[in-house]
């Protein structure tokens, strides 16, 4: 029992630790472990895109109704990111949220078993809602953890590299679907039976991973650590009340619009190919989707490389602009040409979600955990836009004209990429954080206001005279 007592998940937020100044080497293990989570929800998201068409075939439902999967999945995100997961994150810490999210994911996968057995689409949507709560919890913790765990200078590189494994998961899932889900179609008993085994395997894996997280000694990052990072880099905006962090709320709006557009395109990619490319089977279209998601993953790895030499905000603007340029022709083009436009669109979508997270959290300091809940909550756009696209596609009996819906939401999200590049109040915190040397040297520079990691604090408050000076209010 002694080992369980040592593995307490309770974590104070007012205590300074050495985690704020982790070097690249010290951050490798926790980052690798958390990166596994990115693969998991990429795989789950990819399965959802494939199941969208599979349920249309096997349960004989409309495009609009099949979007209930996306509505249940992404509709759960705000409940997690602004509710239970964010409360656990602020009161217990990152590790507790990782374990909580994995357990919810596993429970949802187990609930899916009887729902699929009885061919209950509503029941399966309920299971997906539980899974969405689990994945929403994981994203609420994993995205800020990746951006903060290590030198601030490389936060965009870290989160895009980890998110690239999310892209790999979205490639694996449609390939699996093309050979497993679409092997049997129509009313065959085998048509849904294979889906059951996939979700049982997911449940077993995530429960085992939760045990690994429980026993892993990953560094816990506190509000005090994040306040120190913001103060030391002179990029902090947390001197203002939380409700005046307008950059954060603009990032949340952009995340809502972008994620809604991304999910809508991927959810109806198979429908688009079948509608515009005569003679294409569901299985072949799922393989085309896997190829498009492969381009998505490649786009992320290329984005990481570009960000090593170019400011991330420039790369962000470039990618966002090209999403708009290439989705527009897909509305009127058909056949291989139209599908190629979607391929290129997915390639340029690749870095946008994680970059919005990283840029939106720059300078939030002690508000980082709370702010991450809002940005991840913006993912609920994935519950709103696909039903709109599905309704338009049903009206026109074709998915191509409905691609005007994600185009409109891309344009709305584009406003944030413009602001972060051309509005000084947005640009300056981003650039200052990118020039930080914390974690690049073993000893931080005195002029940056570094506090030795050995001198842990149990309380922090901002001084009005010195703007954001960390004070010690009590000791252990």
Could you give a quick summary of the protein structure above?
Helix content is 70%, strand content 0%.
Characterize the structure shown.
The chain is built from 19 helices and no strands. The two termini are about 25 Å apart. α4 (about 70-90) runs antiparallel to α16 (about 370-375). It has helices at about 1-5, 30-60, 65, 70-90, 95-115, 120-150, 155-180, 190-215, 225-230, 245-265, 270-275, 280-310, 310-325, 335-350, 350-360, 370-375, 380-395, 405-420, 425-435. With about 475 residues, it is mainly alpha-helical. It is a multi-pass membrane protein.
List the helices and strands and how they pair.
Blueprint: H1 2-6, H2 28-58, H3 63-66, H4 68-91, H5 94-117, H6 121-148, H7 155-181, H8 190-215, H9 223-232, H10 246-267, H11 269-276, H12 282-309, H13 312-327, H14 335-349, H15 352-361, H16 368-377, H17 381-396, H18 404-422, H19 424-434
Helix pairs in contact: 2-6, 2-7, 4-5, 4-6, 4-16, 4-17, 5-6, 5-8, 6-7, 6-16, 7-12, 7-15, 10-15, 10-16, 10-17, 10-18, 11-12, 11-14, 12-14, 13-14, 13-15, 13-18, 15-16, 17-18, 18-19
């Amino acid at each position: 029992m002694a080992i369980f007592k040592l593995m307490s998940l309770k974590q104070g937020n007012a205590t300074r630790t050495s985690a704020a100044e982790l070097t690249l080497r010290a951050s490798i293990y926790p980052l690798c472990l958390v990166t596994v989570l990115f693969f998991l929800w990429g795989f789950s998201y990819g399965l959802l895109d494939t199941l969208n068409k599979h349920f249309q075939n096997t349960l004989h439902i409309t495009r609009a109704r099949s979007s209930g999967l996306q509505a249940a999945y992404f509709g759960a995100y705000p409940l997690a990111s602004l509710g239970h997961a964010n409360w656990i994150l602020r009161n217990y810490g990152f590790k507790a949220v990782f374990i909580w999210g994995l357990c919810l994911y596993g429970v949802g996968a187990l609930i899916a078993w009887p729902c699929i057995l009885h061919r209950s689409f509503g029941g399966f949507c309920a299971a997906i809602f539980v899974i969405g709560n689990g994945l929403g919890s994981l994203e609420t913790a994993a995205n800020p953890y990746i951006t903060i765990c290590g030198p601030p200078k490389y936060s965009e590189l870290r989160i895009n590299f980890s998110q690239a494994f999310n892209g790999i998961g979205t490639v694996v899932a449609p390939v699996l679907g093309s050979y497993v889900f679409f092997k049997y179609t129509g009313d065959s008993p085998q048509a849904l039976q294979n889906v059951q085994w996939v979700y049982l395997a997911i449940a077993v894996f995530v429960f085992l991973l939760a045990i690994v997280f429980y026993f892993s000694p990953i560094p816990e990052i506190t509000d005090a650590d994040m306040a120190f990072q913001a103060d030391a880099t002179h990029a902090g905006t947390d001197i203002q009340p939380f409700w005046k962090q307008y950059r954060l709320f603009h990032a949340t709006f952009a995340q809502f619009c972008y994620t809604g557009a991304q999910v809508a395109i991927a959810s109806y990619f198979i429908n688009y190919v079948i509608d515009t490319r005569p003679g294409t089977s569901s299985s072949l279209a799922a393989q085309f989707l896997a190829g498009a998601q492969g381009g998505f993953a490649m786009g992320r790895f290329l984005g990481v490389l570009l960000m090593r030499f170019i400011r991330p905000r420039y790369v962000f603007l470039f990618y966002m602009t090209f999403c708009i340029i290439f989705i527009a022709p897909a509305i009127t083009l058909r056949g291989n040409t139209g599908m190629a436009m979607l391929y290129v669109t997915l390639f340029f979508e690749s870095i946008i979600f994680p970059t919005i997270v990283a840029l939106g959290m720059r300078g939030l300091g002690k508000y980082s955990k709370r702010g991450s809940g809002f940005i991840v909550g913006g993912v609920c756009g994935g519950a709103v836009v696909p039903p709109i696209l599905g309704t338009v596609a049903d009206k026109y009996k074709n998915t191509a004209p409905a691609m005007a819906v994600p185009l409109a939401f891309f344009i709305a999200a584009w406003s944030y990429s413009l602001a972060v590049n051309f509005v000084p109040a947005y640009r300056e915190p981003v650039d200052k954080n990118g020039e930080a040397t914390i974690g690049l040297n073993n000893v931080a520079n005195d002029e940056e206001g570094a506090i030795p990691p050995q001198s842990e604090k149990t309380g922090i408050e901002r001084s009005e005279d010195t703007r954001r000076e960390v004070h010690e209010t009590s000791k252990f």
